[in-house]
């Protein structure tokens, strides 16, 4: 898959057995392939433009769809080097537009580029893609889709847990104690920005020479402005109850520019610290608003789980909660999302419904993904 940051393709080669419960997983190989290694050098800039709602001809959209598919097929082939050959590909693709249902009874829309049929053609492997569409067709948000996998792999019999993904956009899975037995009581939603605003700010501050705050070192030199954070927490998305999902449409360059105008009194380190604290504060705020109780454990994954400063801000806002990484529980924190789409593809071939209506708001459970034979 490739996430909101549009920085490359995360590929994971996994060995799976069993069904939904128990599900057995072994990670054989995992790697992030920058788009520049897999495709023409202007692909990332074209995708960023498309995801920023800049108009483009349909012919160019079709070409982008093909180019992304070719990049994903190359990533799938490279991850098999010196490994057992794969039997199936699950591809989330590259999201360039996401519009949740505007009102109950209406349908949303989500567009992921990277045609599954072309990936199957180039790789010679059956490919499952377009995972969000089936959930959207029955009234769901089409996201988040990872919570049932979190329940299978990370639920605890006695402890309430939150699994917090810190990619470009953040999303949470709430796993009440023992939920892996019946999938009851599981909640989940997009929490808002995780790394996206920080990454955009770093790119601007360094004129593109740096794309993220390595280990949160720059932000750690600053001090957050609590008044600004509280002001930004009034954003309508944070007030909206779940089910909910979001993307660059809500938290992208335009919003960052607006926030930057309000933060002119801050130096670069304080500006980054304040954006980082917004991520932490918005996550904690959403737990306090929308969970039946705060979790005993908070398990982090995604790129932001490698940011000690972000983790320290989360601990400050959730002092009674024990923080850890999914690495600590045997699930690779950097590649958990890619692993999840391998599992969703596996479940699709088994015919299992794999959305959770309690998370997405769909009217019923449905199998997710379109199957493309080679």
Automatic annotation (TrEMBL):
Binding site for ATP: 3-10
Domain of life: Bacteria
Keywords: ATP-binding, Carbohydrate metabolism, Kinase, Nucleotide-binding, Transferase
SUPFAM superfamilies, sorted: Actin-like ATPase domain
The family this protein is said to belong to: Belongs to the anhydro-N-acetylmuramic acid kinase family.
Its job: Catalyzes the specific phosphorylation of 1,6-anhydro-N-acetylmuramic acid (anhMurNAc) with the simultaneous cleavage of the 1,6-anhydro ring, generating MurNAc-6-P. Is required for the utilization of anhMurNAc either imported from the medium or derived from its own cell wall murein, and thus plays a role in cell wall recycling.
Protein name, per record: Anhydro-N-acetylmuramic acid kinase
Gene that this sequence comes from: anmK
